[in-house]
Amino acid sequence: MSFQLLKSEIIDQQLCQGCGLCAGICKSIEMKDYKPELTGQCVLEKTGESCGKCYTSCPQANQHTIIPTEPKAIYSIKQKENEPITATLSKYLFNSKKITRLIKAENIDKKIKSISSYSEDDANEIKDIVHGRSEILMKLMEEYEVITQNSKEVIAIFGTPCEISGADHLSKEKQMSGSIIKIGTFCDLNIPNIQFNHGRIVSPCTSTCPAGVDASGYIRLIKNGKYQEAIDLIRQKNPLPSICGRICTHECENECTLISTGNPISIRELKKYITEWEIKKGLNKDTNEISADAKKVAIIGSGPAGLSAAYYLAKKGYQPTIFEKSDKIGGMLRLGIPQFRLPDNVIDHDIEFIKRAGVKIITNKSVNAEFTFEDLRKEGFEAIFLAIGQYEPYKLGIPGEELNNVHTALDFVQKWKYCIKEAQEFKDKVVGIIGGGSVALDAAQTALRMGAKKVMVIYRRSENELPARREDYEHSKREGIEFLFLRNPTGFIPDENQNLKGSEVIEMELCDADESGRSKPQEIICSEYEIEKQHVVVAIGQGVECSEIYAASDGNLIKKRGKLEIDELTLQTSIPDVFSGGDMVTRSKNVAISAVAHGHQAAISIDRYLQGRDLKDGRYLEERMFSDGKFFTPDAYPEPAPLNEIELYLSTKEIESVFSSEYSHTESGRCLGCNNYCLHCQDFAAVESDIAIGDDGSQDGYKTLIAWTDSGKEILENLIKTENLSSKSISREALNEKIKAKLKRKIVDHPKSIREMIFSNILKNGSSTIGQLKIDLGLEMKDIRYHTLRLAQMRKLSMVMGEEEPMFSPYIEH
Fold first, then answer.
1. Which residues pair with 32 in a beta bridge?
2. pTM for this prediction
3. Are strands 806-810 and 797-801 parallel, antiparallel or unpaired?
4. From CA 137, how far away is CA 159, in angstroms rounded?
5. What is the DSSP letter of 525?
6. Measured between alpha carbons, how far is residue 496 from residues 13, 401, 405, 493 in Å?
7. Alpha-carbon span 61 to 7, nearest angstrom
8. Which alpha helices (DSSP H) does 283-343 contain, by range?
9. Beta-strand (E) ranges in 301-419?
10. b/e string for 672-711 if b means 16 or more Cβ within 10 A?
11. pLDDT tens-digit series, residues 706-724
12. What is 53-66 written as a DSSP string?
């Protein structure tokens, strides 16, 4: 029953931190994806004996406040070339015979290894030491038998603060003190960030999402079968859940804690699963009635930013009207993404939901010199939100770009999206795609479906720098699309009829990183060669065509680098009643979820503007909505939905299938609920370790090492001397800032209110029975009985049989 208590109060409540301490204490518990599972029979259930150590040892059930203490010593040590400080420290510990074993996680797959000696052959093994949640405490427990058989054994372990705390607890539980050297790492996982400091407690996935969607929250609802509630939670920050279930760049998954296992949670696929459920079920018939006297807001453009702003304005009681230039609603979602990637019925579903919120949409209506901002004001619109997309294709600027059969990606996808069966000119032809983004891959897969006998993607950087989503790249390769990396076209070759017959490309090499954070490609002299092809699609990006909007403003908008300049906090332009977001503003990420975030923030600003309130008061800049120019490729990817086996020719069938009900339940159950288990942690610098290692407080090339114990100080002093390491003064201010930031957190009371009420009642009123407690507390008898017995099991209460029922009193140690 004790494991059931752990399961019901900690694991099922998404409070497990994955430290593995319970598995270290009990041989019947094993860790799977950082969650404990009972593989044998619980001792308590088997013999009736009182155990409960898995529960009483759980850090979540026994939180404690970190009391700031002064370290024994702090150093900023320069690392050796090509050797991390963890490797240097490990080798020293072996060579000086300070340790006989080292437990560490491998860098590649985080599998735990125990190294019992060090030689030059072990150098690579030692270098593999990394920090991150693992099953290191289970391995420590396995090594415990070795320690008890040989008192001279000393083990060093590396871990996060919660793992180090667990190791400390385990060593005391098993009376192993003095046999373990604990080396911790600084941990800022879910550290109080700008959201936390403004009263928002969020998980790593939520803090990374441009729109701030509560991913762990809706995954928990999915696990409990509450699909509609999960979708409703998503729509609090994103009114396009069905669309984003297909095309979101899922940056949330890059920060999932389980990425260290090689298999982060498939957050986007879970979103797709529940929205597909809603599409099949149908929307509720309820509509949002808006007062005819409500203030009117004009939205220019029906892409994700415009739809998002309109939806949240309607929810606030305004009358938003979207003006769409084309005859189709959805902007680039509709016009720039193939149906096999984003089916029309999915777009229609989300748009219908937004319409029912009270949003009016007018198609075939441009805002330009003929229909201006002033005209909108005369029609009663008191604010304007500009959300036009990027429809102006970039040019390569090389000879032959004007030839027949040289296409731009956007025109190519738009032209053939709804008439793919008429595209006979591509059948059995060789098609080249220039570029490496998602649009390039969409164009490549479109060409394949139009019957091209060969499709090749030419990209000037390497595979590692490819900006397209990894799963799209893998899908493209599976379909037979070829990729030529480190190649760039220098010209297109015409035939006698000025049709394309081939292109000249040059080989590239990567040099230092550019402003985007990627390695800069450079041409290799005299490496040009020709490639035969009958069609080329140029997919190197699009820009914003602002001329019509600029004319509509009578020239009063300010442009910067071809886009509109805005206040990034409020999204207000240089015209007070005009706001803008999405692709057309400076520093935009140019992805749907970022545009959705812009629309939501714009709705907040417009609401304040129309209410005459300060647009900035109490708000802070949501940096995650904007791009910093850097690209990040994670080391691991979530499990995608399986690919549909389809006949590609002339097919518009969606590429990916949808998770099954069983798989979605299993996948959602893997979520650690990080906003629950990390939000209260106060330990940044692993204060229960002997030595803690991190970056904060040191310059590049140096590491900060803190000795928390006398033995840790002795080790570091001898390490510096023996290895002849150089050191610098440390920035205590930078280090203390991180330490203090985590100490701001308050220990969170987990949901044990009934138990606390029982215990407090007995402490205050003296001994009591279950019947009397029911009267005093007004709770259900079964709840009183269960939690009172658990308190007795935990030795918080003592139980003595009375004449009719047991009597419970505070437990006193004899």
1. 35
2. 0.72
3. antiparallel
4. 9
5. T
6. 72, 16, 14, 10
7. 12
8. 304-315, 332-335
9. 319-323, 360-362, 381-386, 392-393, 406-408
10. bbbbbbbbbbbbbbbbbbbbbbbbbbbeeebbbbbbbbee
11. 999 999 999 999 999 999 9
12. HHHHT-TTTS--PP
- Dist CA 221 CA 277 (whole Å): 14
Whole-angstrom distance, CA of residue 114 vs CA of residue 658: 41
Residue whose pair of structure tokens reads 């280090």 in the numeric block: 735
The owner of tokens 């647009």 is 615
> Cα separation of 248 and 350, whole Å?
14
Task: Report helix, strand or coil for 18.
Answer: coil
Q: What does the pLDDT look like over 132-147, one tens digit per residue?
A: 455 677 677 777 666 6
CB 9, CB 756: distance < 8 Å:
no
For 678-737, the DSSP string reads TTT---SS-TTSSEEEESTTS-TTEEEEEE-SHHHHHHHHHHHHHTT--EE---HHHHHH
Token pair recorded at residue 299: 């939205």
Structure tokens at 99: 């340790």
Q: What angle do CA 686, 217, 608 make, to 5 degrees?
A: 105
Tokens standing for residue 136:
């290191």
Nearest to 689 by CA among 16, 112, 59, 163: 163
* Cα(271)–Cα(256) distance, integer angstroms: 15
- The pair of three-digit structure tokens given for residue 66, joined into one six-digit string: 């970190």
Residue 673: closest CA among 254, 274, 218: 218
Q: Identify the residue whose tokens are 């928990």.
A: 220
> Would you state the structure tokens that stand for residue 277, as one six-digit string?
């459920």
Paired with 799 in beta bridges are 808
Q: Per-residue pLDDT for 664 more than 60?
A: yes
